Amino acid sequence: MSDSTTDPNLWLEDVTGDKQLDWVRAHNERTIDAYTRTPEFETLQSRIREVLDTDARIPYARRRGEFLYNYWRDAQHVRGLWRRTTMEQYLRDDPEWDVLVDLDAVAEQEGENWVWAGAQVLRPDQHRALISLSRGGADAVVVREFDLVTREFVSGPDSFELPEAKTDIGWIDVDTVYVGTDFGDGSLTDSGYPRLAKRWRRGQPVEDAETVFEGETGDVAVGARYDDTPGYERTFVDRALDFHTAHRFELTADGELVELDVPDDARVSVYRDHLLVRTRSEWLGYPAGALLAANYPAFLAGAREMTVLFTPDAHTSLEQYAWTRNHLLVVTLQDVQTRVRVLTPGEDGWADVALDGVPDATSTSIIDVDPLDGDEFFLNSSGFTVPATLLSGTVGGPLTAVKQAPGFFDTDGITVTQHFAVSDDGTRVPYFVVGRNTGTPSPTLLYGYGGFENSMVPAYSGGIGRAWLEHGNTYVIANIRGGGEYGPTWHTQALKENRPRAFEDFAAVAKDLVERGITTTAQLGAQGGSNGGLLMGVMLTRYPDLFGAIVCQVPLLDMRRYHLLLAGASWMAEYGDPDDPDEWKFLAEYSPYQNTDPDATYPPILITTSTRDDRVHPGHARKMVARLEEQGHAVAYYENIEGGHGGAADNAQAAFKSALTFTFLTDTL
After folding, report:
1. Bridge partners of residue 297, in order along the sequence
2. Which of 101, 262, 313, 487 could cross-link with 82 by S-S, CB 3.0 to 4.6 Å?
3. Which region holds residue 472: left if phi is over 0, alpha if psi is between -120 and 50, else beta?
4. CATH architecture for segment(s) 414-519
């Protein structure tokens, strides 16, 4: 059993120590020599880079008033351009873009490895923005104020400028923001996120900003946000108790905190006079996964009359919803396939109609709405073999395809089918099979996640197509428990002591693929990242006989210490508390780092991570590699010195990482 006193690999948790980085570089070099020194690798990397860099892909944008904002990276702009245009221009095949920030130029001028982390535009004037920049792709960001008129960063004592931290910031007006950041000792939670929410006025030292809310160190985070809906301006405060529960308040103009009497585990939003509650457990007789509406002022006054907008069933769950000015767009999943509806409040209740014109055989999601500007919206629709289409519409009018992504691989003969495997407890687990030769055994890659109520839906990937499907191989996505494919109960069935259900589901899909003749054990690879990296670690240590190869990316693997590393403490509601003997008992049963076996025969494994990942500590991956090597197992390892939790800071790094993965899989399967 490994802990802080007996773990011989604890030294690898020092992220940037010279000795540790020498260890990383030595392992990287071995992996690079083994898999990348061939013309085939160079060709594959180049073809994947073409997908990422092409100017023909869709420039997804956020509409704010008269402007649409887009962040764009390509071969000439490696770090990217932040730019905007008008709707008239955007609808053209070749819009004219007004470049606001050239991040390549900024990075070169400042000698920094900047990665774009987002921007918030002040509305309605749109003459200032708060821009977040990350060093190497980390979650921690530097915040700077930007003048959209002069195209320059605003500096000096009168600017909103913050050093590197996991900062939460948002506009109230041009001279005021709400901010949570590292204010010094005691200002962060155990998870490394803001514990204090402050109102910061222009010209004021940030340490003197007025505290409007204070959480506990054991919370995940606290934050304040300003609702700028005209006529409904107000402030809301969230206190995240853990990853899945929170206390919510309205902060009135006179400083009173009014707590919203809603379940801690519900998803709650307020728009104008509409309160929406999406339940995650039974409440007031309504089932988990329902969407409920109430009159917000009446609710605050004590009324509990709720209108049911959506009720789940055994096959259907609520995936997404968003307001236009007068309507609520709702996306549901029916056996992991999307449907879109429009709900409209009125004097006689809520009208509910299907949204016409959504393409068949694709997954559709809401890309952007802006309720301040009307009932216009953008949807994105794509499938495993269908490139993305950007749809624009106004509620009540037709849907129009305004942008179409190109196809990057030959889909002729490639089919998409859905099957169901039966898990150990009898639960039917859906999965999608994509390939050209699914009637005969072929190399197959099985992908899974299974956590945090995150749904895995069909989507087009030019990289997977070029690197895998084009070669006659098969790609599979497993919709295992822990995800959100069937609503919150699909997630909660795999929480804490029940986490092994997610592992059993994935193993059941692996067995079903072999039983159906889609692949063989020797030809079956598995891949997952982050929480999916934990899944891969368990597949290696608990189900090694089911796979011919495993790719484990930015993983959690040491569940004895995960809560002590970076953001790990925020996930204890998902996995459990290792310091609680009762909870460590079930964690110890599957924690990959504690369950490696020197006498076992493991399939070839590639483990990858990023030095700059400040969400899942790279020590998980490093220590697992060291332990496997100590026990005589072969393991390939690659750690990107940049890249954050996504593992890559730019398209070149992303293409290299992807080409390495698929070269490893091709060689081993």
Report:
1. none
2. 101
3. left
4. 3-Layer(aba) Sandwich (3.40)
Tens of pLDDT, residue by residue over 424-435, are 999 999 999 999
Kindly state the DSSP code that residue 429 receives in the 8-state scheme: E
Q: For the segment 539-559, what is each residue's pLDDT rounded down to a tens digit?
A: 999 999 999 999 999 999 999
- Does residue 60 register a pLDDT over 70? yes
Decide if 132 is catalytic.
Answer: no
Residue type, 556: L
Question: What CA–CA distance (Å, rounded) separates 641 from 32?
Answer: 14
Q: For residues 142 and 135, give the distance between their C-alpha atoms in angstroms, rounded to a whole number.
A: 8
| Residue among 2, 132, 382, 530 flagged as catalytic | 530
Sort residue 534 into left (φ over 0), alpha (ψ -120 to 50) or beta: alpha
pLDDT in tens, 621-664: 999 999 999 999 999 999 998 766 676 668 899 999 999 999 99
Token digits for 537? Answer: 């670690």
244 is catalytic: no
Domain boundaries, the chain: 1-35+524-570+591-669, 312-407, 414-519
Catalytic residue among 2, 392, 645, 658: 645
CATH architecture of 1-35+524-570+591-669: 3-Layer(aba) Sandwich (3.40)
Q: Give bridge partners of residue 231 from the DSSP assignment.
A: none
Domains 1-35+524-570+591-669 and 414-519 share a fold: yes
Q: What is the pLDDT of residues 125-183, one digit of tens each?
A: 899 999 999 998 889 999 999 999 999 999 999 999 999 999 999 999 999 999 999 99
With beta carbons less than 8 A apart as the criterion, state whether 493 and 477 touch: no
Strand stretches in 557-610, DSSP E: 605-610
Question: Could you tell me the two tokens for 586?
Answer: 């079930």
362 phi and psi angles, rounded to 5 deg: -135, 165
In 3D space, the residue among 303, 405, 305 whose CA is nearest the CA of residue 362 turns out to be: 405
**Tens digit of each residue's pLDDT (9 = 90 or more) over 382-420:** 999 999 999 999 999 999 999 999 999 999 999 999 999
Cα–Cα dist 321/329, whole Å: 5
Q: Does the bond joining 194 to the residue before it have cis omega, within 30 degrees of 0? A: no
The tokens describing 83, both together, are 């730019």
Q: Measured in Å, how far apart are the chain's first and last C-alpha atoms? A: 33
**Is the pTM here over 0.90, yes or no?**
yes
Count of other CB atoms within 10 angstroms of residue 176: 16
CA 109 to chain CA centroid, nearest Å: 31
